[in-house]
Fold this protein.
Amino acid sequence: MLQSFLQDTWVTPTVTPASAVAVRDAVTGETVCHVSSEGLDVAGAFAHARCVGGPALRDLTFPQRADLLDAVAAAVRARREELYVLSARAGATLTDARYDVDGGVRVLRDYAARARAELPDAPYLLEGPAERLARGEDFLGVHLVSPSPGLMLQVNAFNFPVWAPLEKLAQAVLAGMPSVVKPATPTAYLTEHLVRIVAEAGVLPPGALQMVVGSVRTALDLLHEQDVLSFTGSAATAATLRTHPDLVARSVRFNAEADSVNAIVLAPDVEPGSPLFEAFVREVVTEMTVKAGQKCTAIRRVLVPREHELAALDAISAELAGVTIGNPGAEGVRMGPVVSLEQRDDVRRAARAIVESGRFVYGDPGKVRVVDADPERGAFLDTLLISADPDASAPHEVEPFGPAATVLAYRDTAHATDLVARGRGSLAASVVGDDLAWTTAFVREAAPWHGRLHLLDSTNLTQTTGHGSPLPALRHGGPGRAGGGSEMGGTRGVVDLMQRTALQASPRLLDSLRNGHARPPADSA
């Protein structure tokens, strides 16, 4: 039975395995663990975060909080091999595992460095120059950005069980806010081991990090006005959470990163066979196969000029033919299974809904050849490349959260921008082309529908970090269907978690704040 980490203690739920949810190995189908939150004192955990973890973090300056992030990064990095091994049970290849684990470590270190460079040696931030509010010089206005006396409840998705909690933890710790992590059930054992590593290292103050496995539905009633609910998952669940009566009544801050049908667009000037065309094909195949396509930023729609449709289908199919699928630990395997049999079935249903307006060009949703594994016991899927009617609704509304993508042929620029917008808001899109005028015009129309645009041309194709790689310095989130939230974005994301208060005061008081004299002497507490 998987344990939770509450009030700095490992706690076992009060149910038998038979009454809990069984989590199975994505490769073999064997039971890995059982998950339940029955009998857990979540209310006590929340109180511990607010009364113990929060004050300890808020008492530290930004550089001191940055030191905590570096310490967490060092602890995780020292034991990352353990997380690699567990990741294989979730279907991750070593490359996939490094994307998750090492990516999380890099985010922690990046945030620590940014905090030291961009934030003051103080527990709070005074923004910008003072504004004169009267004729004289003795009544000024500034904005104070201070830590909120609440907690962050992280509700995370299954696809990044290490990176997601670490990325959110980085921002929360710098903002002076403790975290309670709720991992997705299919990969909860990975997040549980991550929290064990951090807890055993003893690098965070008590109450700064807790974890509850299993359902936290009743915990939503426990959130207060100063808390943050940071959610990653489906758009449908995000919509339900957004209207939860307690969140609405208390104006609980809600941040959502939801699913989206992200696109890549091949500009008309890119000729088949050119280096830029080949880079475009690599982006598509990479996004279909890394983590078996189970990334919120993965490419789902491939927009190509009508005259290059056949060339694109042939080139992508040829590249997919070289992808070996099977046990992530077997030599030469490039793609493992999706996380569970249920997820495999969901992808199949989604792909078949899209193909009603088209055809499968590569792959078979019903069968797959695998290496060193049973394709029926494991959650294996073939890579699925679909060609569909670009004006059909399904390709723009249905997301197969796995190794599938749909090629859509556009007629002209206006048609291409219209097709991209039909996704109703996405986390990321790529545009591949050298025609500056075309790309500039396209970006102006497409930008409002996206959280991030990845613009690839002949000058940067050897340096790109890739379509699907969120970076700590840049905003991660998207409008509309993508949730309307925002994570990372450098220190902007830290400030987003804090309270901005307008101050109207004398210069002497503002100078006192700037010099760090905001806290009362110890004997006056």
Summary: Residues 517-525 have pLDDT under 50 and may be disordered. The two ends are 44 Å apart (CA to CA).
